[in-house]
Design goal:
This protein is an alpha/beta fold. About 35% of the residues lie in helices and about 25% in strands. A hairpin with a 5-residue loop joins strand 5 and strand 6. The longest helix is centred in the last third of the chain and has 21 residues. Bound molecules: 2-deoxy-2-amino glucitol-6-phosphate (AGP).
């Protein structure tokens, strides 16, 4: 996710754009930039860092201008630095563009342009797009709007773009697919942004572009919206906005955490985009391909992480051992780094980290690397320390996760690790074709299933109201869902401050069952699985001691529904992918309980989003 802002009108564009970028920093904050035109010349300032760093770099150097575009970045291609920051200017110097999204086929387009002599400065997919548009405009001799449309019909991916001609700064062409773009309509002025927060104080009249739509924003003209595929004119719905700024930043949700729970269908699609090609029956992961020998021939895989990332690692342990038959050890980074571990150059270490800056995880992989291991990073923040320390890796593309409690980070980590395990198993010849294709199809279907599950959270909310004052919770799971029990307990602990413990369900009889009484809510994760009958017995053991059972079950499960106190249903999927589904109701449960307890959900006490200290 990145933030885009554009302005065309009678005011000076710079302050409007800068203030707008500050409002959009929640969408991405690794670098930013601005481009305006004054006295016939382009003025571009951009740099790594936050918007304040950009303001410091501008330092009053920009002449007043009535046209401008600005961008705050969440890197997907190309590490965060000054060169990769947006806006990007075409090689000819004629066009300047900002972009939020991912161009999947940028590499082939870049190659074609380079073969025609176009030179690139950055590693970004965005610079390819601005040069493609410029190339078409020049070669075909068409106007900017037509060149944009022709270019976008060649592009595969997601985008929200603003682009204008430097020597004709009277109009801005915008286009949208998969990333948000809204046009604010004022009196003789226009605003363009990722959401309405940058222009709410100027106008509440707005047009939200739909996917595959583009528009020309020109002073003195109506906003002309057209379809990108067929160029048909579209009569857009003009909104009169009612939301306040804070509500818009959170997408209308009360908290970033809830927004990020509901973003999971999209973040999973982004994590799988360009990697899981289920209809072609293939997985494309460059990081895997580059180190396939190491991964396929690994004697063991060490997985290192902290907190939720460590839980994702535990899910990966079940995946890799079940599918790829490679021994896996999952380690808390803080323990691994100090216990003088045995590491050889045959070891592969997978480091999992949303922030890519967790001090213990970074130190642990540095130690492993010094001792010869190959490091594979699974991070969300592009260009983060752990990503840069890794020999290879795969970004989760979850977008910024603002809520301290990880939600979409966990599911996108598990999705990426699932792809890795399946691909390595397939490369080792361990998967029958039919099973391989079934795995791909099922994983591809998970985002839609989560979307369906998120149609209502009323059940989770009701159950939360019954147990919000419980002093303790137990979370039980088996197999692939044992790590989910740990993750569910962590979610509850860290945002509602209720003590909660996760256990393998079978472990109850070795002591914890002594805790069970009518005051102990027990969340049991019990989807249809190979151990279903066992988990049913565990539920009966809890009920026999008057425990209150909240069961997460497969849709339509009547057997457990007859014995549990409450059930929350999940959509059916293959057992290997059940953690992606069973974790959703647990996220909602912890969220609603925390809200009902009036806790600070997005910034819980004592916690930080990234633990960059020991
Ligand atoms: C999880 O909800 C917490 N925010 C925390 O446990 C987190 O997972 C842990 O600090 C690791 O962070 P990382 O993924 O950024 O390395």
């Amino acid at each position: 996710m990145c933030g885009i802002v554009g302005y065309l009108g009678f005011r000076n564009a710079e302050p409007i754009i800068i203030k707008g970028l500050r409002r959009l920093e929640y969408r991405g904050y690794d670098s930013s930039g601005i481009a305006t035109v004054a006295n016939g010349g382009l003025q571009v300032v951009k740099c790594q860092g936050k918007v304040q760093d950009l303001v410091d770099k501008i330092d009053g150097s920009l002449a007043e201008s009535g046209i401008g575009i600005g961008h705050t970045r969440w890197a997907t291609h190309g590490v965060p630095n000054d060169v990769n920051a947006h806006p990007h200017v075409s090689a000819s110097g004629k066009l300047v563009l900002i972009h939020n999204g991912i161009i999947e086929n940028y590499a082939s387009i870049k190659e074609a342009l380079q073969s025609r002599g176009v030179e690139f400065k950055s590693d970004t997919d965005t610079e390819v797009l601005v040069n493609l548009i410029d190339d078409i405009r020049t070669v075909e001799g068409v106007n900017l709007a037509k060149a944009v449309r022709m270019a976008l019909n060649q592009v595969i991916g997601a985008y929200a773009i603003c682009v204008y001609e430097i020597d004709n700064p009277t109009k801005i062409v915008v286009a949208k697919k998969g990333s948000p773009l809204v046009v604010g309509i004022g009196e003789n002025e226009f605003f363009i942004a990722s959401d309405a927060t940058p222009f709410l104080e100027y106008t509440k009249t707005a047009i939200y572009l739909e996917d595959d739509e583009m528009a020309v924003v020109e002073l003195g003209e109506e906003v002309k919206v057209r379809s990108i595929p067929n160029n048909k004119a579209i009569n857009p719905y003009v909104h009169q906005l009612q939301m306040d700024i804070e509500a818009i930043e959170k997408g209308g949700y009360d908290h970033f955490m809830l927004k990020e729970i509901y973003e999971q269908p999209k973040s999973l699609r982004d994590a799988l985009r360009g990697r899981l090609l289920a209809d072609q029956g293939i997985i494309k992961m460059s990081g895997i391909f580059e180190y396939r020998e190491k991964l396929v021939n690994a004697d063991r895989i060490l997985i290192i992480g902290c907190g939720t990332s460590w839980h994702a690692g535990l899910v990966a342990e079940y995946l890799f051992e079940d599918l790829a038959r490679i021994p896996v050890e999952v380690e808390y980074a803080s323990e691994f780094r100090y216990r003088n571990p045995v590491i050889t150059e045959k070891d592969v270490v997978i480091a999992i980290s949303q922030s890519g800056e967790t001090a213990d995880t970074l130190a642990a992989i540095k130690l492993a690397k010094e001792r010869g291991a190959t490091i594979f990073g699974v991070c969300n923040v592009v260009g983060s320390s752990i990503a840069r320390e890794s020999d290879a890796g795969a970004y989760t593309h979850a977008g910024p996760e603002i809520g301290v409690a990880s939600t979409k980070a966990f599911t996108t980590q598990v999705a990426v690790l699932s792809l890795m395990a399946i691909q390595i198993a397939y490369e080792k010849g361990l998967l029958k074709e039919s099973y391989y294709y079934q795995l791909l199809a099922e994983l591809d279907a998970v985002p839609d299933k989560i979307e369906k599950m998120l149609e209502s959270d009323s059940k989770a909310k009701y159950i939360s109201s019954l147990f919000k004052d419980a002093p303790n919770f137990l979370y039980l799971g088996r197999g692939f869902n044992f790590p989910v029990a740990l993750e569910g307990a962590l979610k509850l602990k860290e945002i509602s401050y209720i003590h909660a413990e996760g256990y393998p369900a079978a472990e109850m009889k070795h002591g914890p069952i002594a805790l069970i009484d009518e005051n102990m809510p027990v969340v049991v994760i019990a989807p249809k699985s190979g151990q279903y009958e066992k988990i049913v017995s565990n539920i009966q053991e809890v009920k026999a001691r008057n425990g209150k059972v909240i069961a997460v079950v497969s849709k339509g499960d009547k057997e457990i529904a007859a014995m549990a106190d409450h059930v929350i249903e999940i959509e059916e999927s293959m057992e290997v992918f059940s953690p992606l589904l069973t974790t959703i109701p647990l996220q909602l449960l912890s969220y609603h309980i925390a809200v009902m307890r009036e806790c600070n959900v997005d910034q819980p006490r004592n916690l930080a989003k990234s633990v960059t200290v020991e």
